[in-house]
Amino acid sequence: MGPVTQLIVLILTHCFSGVISLVGEMPMFDYMCAEEGVYPRYNPWDCGAYILCNTGRAYPFQCPPGTVYSRANGLCDWPHKVDLRQCSNNPLGRFDHMCKWNPGAKLPSQLSCSQYFDCSQSTSSVEYVKYVMECPYPQLFSDVHGRCLHFKLVQCGKRPMPVAPCDYIQYQQMCPDPRTCIPCHQRHPSCSGLIDGYHPVISSRNHYMYCDSGRTLSIGQCPARQIYSRASGRCSAGIQ
């Protein structure tokens, strides 16, 4: 498993618990309603749901609790009366269905403004890893332009906005024993709450960082036998 696949697996592990809420915010599947008129269609990724087509628009509906959608009679019914071999309760199946019809689509994740689903990433053998991606820090994913952009050019709306490096999965690490891992915030200093400009790195006397809008844009190191002076804002041989 290469580093890119490891990163995407980590993203999936981190965010899978929120997949149900995420898919509820995905774009409507109007392409499933090509025929004219008003009619129901089964939902291939949710046995307990169906889609109502109306003049080319798709509207999702849930069956009453404890029931599933029957393709045979176009109604919600008890599970023992329905052939369930052609339905699935895997919510991630929605991405497969969406990407089948839109192979170049890039869809924003509702879990983080830095994450998105890329339908063109279909070469991985790991299930659904092919879709999950994250913008390089500190970029954000623009749902308007369909790509990662400078964080000042993106409006996240209701999507949670990551700011610190450790808000990005790419800066976290998979560790067999968390008790032996150096905390992420110590490995990757944060500018959260700091004004724009240069600041000392708290965990190291000879390192400094440049902050912009709470983001850690760069980290520098003073020459040998010098430390970063908070008072002067530069490296010096003196003591802070």
For this entry, give a set of tags:
single chain; 240 residues; alpha+beta; 3-stranded antiparallel sheet; 4 helices
Unreliable stretches (pLDDT < 50, length at least 5) are 1-27, 123-128
Count helical runs: 4
**What is the percentage of strand-forming residues?**
25-35%
Which class of secondary structure composition applies to the elements? alpha+beta
Q: Report helical residue fraction.
A: 10-25%
**Principal-axes shape call:** elongated
Largest sheet: 3 strands, antiparallel
Radius of gyration: 24 Å
Q: How many domains? A: 2
H/E topology pattern: HHEEEEEHEEEEEHEEEEE
The assembly state of the depicted protein chains is: single chain
Question: Span between N and C termini?
Answer: 46 Å
Mean pLDDT: 80
Strand tally is 15
- What's the arrangement of strands in the largest beta sheet? 1-2-3
Would you give an account of this structure?
By secondary structure, the chain is of the alpha+beta class. The protein folds into 2 domains: 3-166, no CATH class; 189-236, no CATH class. It has helices spanning 3-15, 19-23, 93-101, 184-187, and strands at residues 38-42, 49-54, 57-62, 68-70, 75-77, 106-108, 115-118, 132-134, 140-142, 147-149, 197-200, 207-212, 215-221, 227-229, 234-236. The strands form 6 sheets. A 3-stranded antiparallel β-sheet has the order 1-2-3, with no helix packed on it. Strands 6-7-8 form a 3-stranded antiparallel β-sheet. It has a 3-stranded antiparallel β-sheet with strand order 11-12-13, with no helix packed on it. Strand 12 (207-212) and strand 13 (215-221) form a beta hairpin. The longest helix has 13 residues, at 3-15. The chain is elongated.
